[in-house]
Amino acid sequence: MKFLIKSLALAVMATFLLSSSVFANEPLANGKVIDQEKCYACHAKKTGFGNGDMIYTRSDSKVTTLAKLNSMISVCNSELRLDLFPEDESDVSKYLNQQFYKFKP
Question: pTM, whole model, 2 decimals?
Answer without folding.
Answer: 0.75
